[in-house]
Amino acid sequence: MKKITIAIDGHSSCGKSTMAKDLAREIGYIYIDSGAMYRACTLFCMQHNLVLADGSIDTKTLEPLMPQIHVSFQLNPETGRPETYLNGINVERDIRTMEVSSHVSPVAAIPFVRKAMTQQQQQMGIEGGIVMDGRDIGTAVFPHAEMKVFVTASDEVRAQRRYDELVAKGEPADFDAVLQNLRERDHIDSTRAVAPLRQAEDALVLDNSHLTIEEQKQWLIEQFHRLTD
Ligand code: CDP
């Protein structure tokens, strides 16, 4: 049977990546975390002092450096989960910090950054059989994806999930700062000029505020079979 393309978009910290990873594992598809690619670009900017004091990005210096940014994913054999590499170095932990979260949306709003990442994402999905999560996958990266899901949940629920995740990893975390960060990112992501976060017209919508991980996984698998059986 032909393998389809699955796009999962939605607001910050709403559990898209957990859903997407679970689904990909269940149906034997490749999972790509497009947000990790924007986070890796942000880490690159931080490493090259391209984040200016006012939080804006030195785009003049960044643009010619774009060909030097290579983001890839490799499966960690111990956890069975894909991890993010920036120029051959494992940055999975470094890209999930609050510092990266606080700079990523301005970086992801830069048109030439989006162009470069979108091209790489389209290349990764050229043969189908992929589950990709992000903000613009069903609208800009794969507008013809056979299955599109738009996920959301209340701000407080999302902030609690991200806070718990940071605490579990032993990262410093402050609930109010996490809540403020996700509201700011949602605002920047939804109002940027290029490929803003929005629900594709043909997306299935899921508010998972009151669903467990297992329940959302079952919902997604049901939708997949409904579309493909
Ligand atoms: O995990 P979380 O939902 O907090 O965010 P993420 O998926 O890791 O994405 C981090 C940031 O990258 C988002 O806030 C967006 O600014 C940006 N992003 C984007 O612009 N387009 C995508 N397809 C994916 C992420």
Short description:
With 229 residues, the protein is α/β, with parallel strands linked by helices. It has helices at residues 16-27, 34-47, 59-65, 98-108, 111-124, 137-141, 155-168, 175-191, 213-228; strands at residues 5-10, 30-33, 71-76, 81-86, 89-90, 130-134, 147-152, 204-207.
What does this 3D model show about the protein?
This protein has 229 residues and is α/β, with parallel strands linked by helices. It is 48% helix and 17% strand. The protein is built from nine helices and eight strands. The chain has helices at residues 16-27, 34-47, 59-65, 98-108, 111-124, 137-141, 155-168, 175-191, 213-228; strands at 5-10, 30-33, 71-76, 81-86, 89-90, 130-134, 147-152, 204-207. It has a five-stranded parallel sheet. The protein has a three-stranded antiparallel sheet with strand order 3-4-5. β4 and β5 form a beta hairpin. It is globular and about 50 Å long. The mean pLDDT is 95. It binds cytidine-5'-diphosphate. Cytidine-5'-diphosphate binds at residues 12-13, 17, 34-35, 38-39, 104-105, 108, 134-137, 185, 189.
Show the helix and strand layout.
Layout: E1 5-10, H1 16-27, E2 30-33, H2 34-47, H3 59-65, E3 71-76, E4 81-86, E5 89-90, H4 98-108, H5 111-124, E6 130-134, H6 137-141, E7 147-152, H7 155-168, H8 175-191, E8 204-207, H9 213-228
Helix pairs in contact: 1-9, 2-4, 2-5, 4-8, 7-8
